[in-house]
Amino acid sequence: MKIVHVVEPFASGIAAFVQSIVQNLRDDYHIVIHGEREYVMRSKEVIKYFPDDNVQFIRWRSAQRSISVVKDTVALVELCRLLQKLKAQKMVDAVHLHSSKSGFLGRLACRLMNITNVIYTPNGAPFLLSNINAVNLFYKLFEKLGSSFGGKVVCSSQSEQDAYRKLGIKALNINNGIAVDTSHYIPEEAPSVSGKFRIVTCARIVQQKNPILFNAIAAHFRDFEQFEFIWVGDGEDRHLLTAPNITITGWLPQSDALALINSAHLYLSTSQYEGLSFSVLEALSLRKTVLLKNCIGNRDIVKKGLNGDLFSIAQEAIVKIFQYYNNPAMLRVMGEYSGWLCHKEFNVDTTCLGYRNLYQRV
């Protein structure tokens, strides 16, 4: 099959999701139409992690993050032209749209180009923010209008699917998944309880990931030298991470990021909403205990008391961190359960088989 992916932004977890599909559906040919946010991650740094024998990349030059009637109209026209050209070359068997901006413009473009075999994966839609306000209402209307253009909505977690169904939008669910093996798990590099207690997160530093909450949690431990916090990644809100015990690494090569997660005692996520975080799944595969903000996408990953815990406010997270620090044996047991859970419920083979079957049906 010839599968066209439309991606904006082409970075972080969304890029990892597309890469996993391309990597695991090697008998199909993939065309990735992508935007670029250079301040987040240059596309050439993302592309190098893709295989070179079954994928082609096309730059979607007018795609951008902010909502603008004029700029989005330009982006829509460009996308229509790209899809029209590919369709004329018989290079479109299915179109897979990734994230909300691609999902809206992509479904409208496919409707205009009379392309009906369309899949849209939100990977964490903005209307999933917990607070109710005018912006949230706008995003809900945005999603409802997009669904009227056609295509199948495929969520990456059960809780995300439930949120779409409550909105009155039909949605399927295929869990995100990663390759589960021991290639990155090196026991001798795992943390020692005699050193600093290392707490790691890996994400863009943006509002969705809630750096203010991460900073508040870390700030509580500023006078405890045995604790350190590391944020792997970068973003427009890095200025909000002011606690002296937080290290911001910037974007790292994938192997270095995995090594840092592997060196952690605990993986912490303060996200306001998720689809199903690839970074958290990486932590599971590396047998880490996870402490996650109770939100859509995160709550699908935690089996309370078995591989970690959920929290709602900073104080709850702080109490849990002290409990983990004082119970290293419990951390190890929870970490082993994380590895088992990842293999059972979030395996990339199952994920890609689900999408391959869906590509054939749409």
Automatic annotation (TrEMBL):
InterPro entries associated with the record: Glyco_trans_4-like_N (IPR028098), Glycosyltransferase_grp1 (IPR050194)
Glycosyltransferase subfamily 4-like N-terminal domain sequence ranges: 12-172
Coiled-coil annotated spans: none
Pfam families the UniProt entry points to: Glyco_trans_1_4, Glyco_trans_4_4
PANTHER family cross-referenced by the UniProt entry: SULFOQUINOVOSYL TRANSFERASE SQD2
Protein name listed in UniProt: Glycosyltransferase subfamily 4-like N-terminal domain-containing protein
